[in-house]
Amino acid sequence: MSDYTITIGTFIAIQAIVACGLNVIVGYAGQISLGHAAFFGIGAYASALLTTAGGFSFWGALPLVLFITGFIGLVLGLPSLRLKEDFLAITTIGINFIVVSVFLYVPFFGGALGIGGIPRVILFGTRLRGTPFLFLCLAFLAAVQLVSWLFTRSWSGLACFALREDEAAASSMGVSPVRFKLAAFILGTAMAGLGGALYAHFMRFISATDFGFPMSVMILSMVVLGGMGTLWGPVLGALVLGMLPEVFRPLTEYRMFLYAALLLLMIRFQPGGLLGESSLARQIFSRLKGGEKE
Amino acid sequence: MQLFLEQMLNGLAIGAIYALITLGLALVYGILRILHVAHAAIYTVGAYVGLAIFSSTHSLALSVTGSMLFCAILGVLIERFVYYPLLKFPPYVPLIGSIACLLAIEELCRMVAGPYILSFPAELPFPSFTIGGIVISSTLSAVYGISAGVLLLLWIITTKTELGLAMRATSQDMAIASSMGINSHWIISVTFMIGSAVAAIAGILVGIYYNQVYPTMGAVPAYKTLALIVVGGLGSVPGAVLASILLGIAETLLIGYAGIPLPRDALAFIAMIAVLLWRPQGLLGGRR
Amino acid sequence: MTEILLSLREVSMHFGGLKALDKVSFDLCDGEILGLIGPNGAGKTTCFNTVSGVYRPTSGEIRFGGIRTDGLPPHRMAALGIGRTFQIVRPFPNLSVLDNVIVAMGLPCYRGIIPSCGSWKRQKTRDGAMELLSKVGLDLQAPQKAGLLPLGNLRRLELARALALNPRLLLLDESFSGLRHEEVAMQEELVRKTRESGISILLIEHNMRVAMGLSDRLVVLDHGLKLAEGSPDEIRKNPEVIQAYLGKEGHSNVA
Ligand SMILES: Nc1ncnc2c1ncn2[C@@H]1O[C@H](COP(=O)(O)OP(=O)(O)O)[C@@H](O)[C@H]1O
Ligand SMILES: [Mg+2]
């Protein structure tokens, strides 16, 4: 594999981790969130600061990073208990803008210059770069997928599904909306934090603009395109949207346009996502299955 | 004091321009309950088309009418081909469609006109004043005059005409409006035409006011206006206008005059969160 | 004298100026079927919503099993032993019929962090849910999406979900409305069986024949006020009740 392919693969793996986190919040718990990149950023900044100014190793910082992102996710998830739909959607956009401004304007976070000199991850005494780091990201992605899968099978997951479908009915069955929505927020934002930490140690230099609203849109597009609320949807979405610009790379000038146009076409003609119900993939799959039986 | 007043007048102009953009968003939200982020792309296109016509004809009147017409058609196309078929899906689906539209149109502008900042060297046919030692330039008085005129016209259309009545009925309840014999899909299209034509005016005004037209000029307004329609009260057009004007003044005074080191573009969202805590239905919104 | 399970004392619920409930008091004894009747808009559903914790009453006192419960949220009321159905059915449309019931079976697990991490895909849970579904006659529909069921089946699904909570008290809000004739008979049978299994029932019913036939006692509401309380025979003869119904919807509803 060329360095270039490895770099793209690493980006895709990291974004898939972040998208899985958003899937927990939006797909499983039904809470709209348009500011997920904020938590991606919080994870990246937390890990960057802990490993540079704080002197921690990546592994020492990681639990703290997950805790910090999850905790901020909990606090910023509170509006979702009061606000509905469009208000919540716009509020989460606002949270994204405000978090980015804090990174940009508070000197502690390095201001417009961002944070540099972030050390590489050291595992078994070797500094990970290139392929080994890609494998580390894939291992974390596998772990995140495992956690997502376990979550969908846990009572907490079922409680979230019920809340997504009908909050009043769910709470009449003993599901506390506060507790389980916030649980989904903590889990989803902690996953974003993990992605952020990996991103920081991969780039070794981060700045606030990496985590702006366009990134949130990108992550949400991955989840929606792949199939919201499905286990593999976000991973597929990250793969498709991560590869598209590379596929179009020879067409430098039209690359971004084709990307946007394709996103538009996909959302227009497969709004349920590539793996969602009544999607083309599902239909073909079920036809094949039906064919076998006959 | 002089500086304060000057900043105040600048803020008012910026607020008036925000109002012209936000208005279309509030109209669309009121009728379709869609967050029409791509509206900012229409505004960008409005500036480019206006500039193109102006460069070749040197007629501001032609430039404005041509651009309004072009944008009205673009708005209706987006409504027919993107939003209308996606209405039955959860709200984030049309929202993503809208964002994709915004990106695609921005890119299209860049591909056609290049990534550069173009200047818009038009003189607006408005007089300049001097009141008590404060100069109101012709650009400034043009911004005031045009936005006041547009707002007044829209107010008349929405409150005094049959079309306005049909628009209000459709935004109350599409099914009931249809049963009363209103062609609600046509009314939706008309709403997009009006909002988009006003966005074209805003695009040209901004182009002339800052003497700048560039592909991503819609990027910041796209999201700032979302905050503004929440502050105004989702779907309330007068609320959106009031919120826009207040924000224009607040941004200019707090950051330009008082020099508070706040990020200018986050102010709208900070205001929004404050408003949501204090008055969740927005400044002029009814209870929902 | 049997034990009192639920008691309302001067419970009021105001929405702005509207008094949806105005100082309503009544008791429900353990093992009883109590009917709550009254014309449309009388405040019956509002009464359910205060008992099940959806609303905090404007004033008054609600006790359930001896504990004061007004102001507790719905999920706490479920945990205390109140199961309910909704007048306008509220299934989880994208979950299967089986999973709809399993959600309710998780009641004991939702309260602690450790139990709520346990798996719901266990054979035992599934069997329990299937048993409830066959009790209400929905076992064949178990794998279907709940959103696709017709109304009659949804009413029975709601009953199955409420029963899956293992409640002490069941609140049934017009569980018979919109059902076909033979479905009504089946639902009546289910309600009777439920009571025989030791669950007390508070039911709202529009159909007088059904309400009179099922209930041990009835409470009549009108305009948020309690108009009368007594056995079906007493209620049938009560002139004020006849007046309230005559005044509103003709006497066809008074059996
Ligand atoms: N959440 C609410 N807000 C305002 N008014 C309500 C609300 N819920 C019920 N009401 C009003 O309270 C009255 C009683 O309603 P309800 O309890 O649903 O009557 P019933 O179930 O007996 O038909 C009605 O006038 C209704 O409009
Ligand atoms: Mg009712």
Helix count of chain B, per DSSP? 11
| Largest two-chain interface | A-B, 39 and 39 residues
Query: What overall geometry of chain A do the principal axes of the alpha carbons give?
Result: globular
Gap between N and C termini of chain A:
43 Å
Question: Count the strands of chain B?
Answer: 2
Provide a quick synopsis of the model.
The complex is a heterotrimer of chains A (294), B (288) and C (255). Chain A has 294 residues and is an all-alpha fold.
Describe this structure in words.
- The complex is a heterotrimer of chains A (294), B (288) and C (255).
- Chain A is an all-alpha fold and 294 residues long.
- Chain A has 13 helices and two strands; from the N terminus they run αααααββαααααααα.
- Chain A has one domain: ABC transporter involved in vitamin B12 uptake, BtuC.
- In chain A, β1 (122-123) and β2 (126-127) form a beta hairpin.
- The longest helix of chain A is centred in the middle third of the chain and has 27 residues, at 177-203.
- Chain B has a two-stranded antiparallel ribbon.
- Chain B has one domain (2-218).
- Chain C has nine helices and ten strands.
- Chain C has helices at 44-51, 74-80, 97-105, 123-136, 151-164, 181-196, 208-214, 232-237, 239-249; strands at 4-15, 18-29, 33-37, 59-64, 67-68, 82-84, 169-173, 200-204, 217-222, 225-230.
- In chain C, β7, α6 and β8 (200-204) form a beta-alpha-beta unit.
- In chain C, α3 (97-105) packs across α4, α3 (97-105) runs parallel beside α5 and α4 crosses α5 (151-164).
- Chain C starts with a strand and ends in a 6-residue tail after the last helix.
- The A-B interface holds A 26, 32, 34, 79, 82-83, 85-87, 89-91, 93-95, 97-98, 100-101, 104-105, 213, 217, 220-221, 224, 253-254, 256-257, 259-261, 263-264, 267-268, 271-272 and B 29, 33, 35, 81-82, 85-86, 89, 91-93, 95-97, 99-101, 103-104, 107-108, 111, 223, 226-227, 229-230, 234, 261-263, 265-266, 269-270, 272-273, 276, 280.
- The structure holds adenosine-5'-diphosphate and magnesium ion (MG).
- Adenosine-5'-diphosphate binds next to β2 and α1 of chain C.
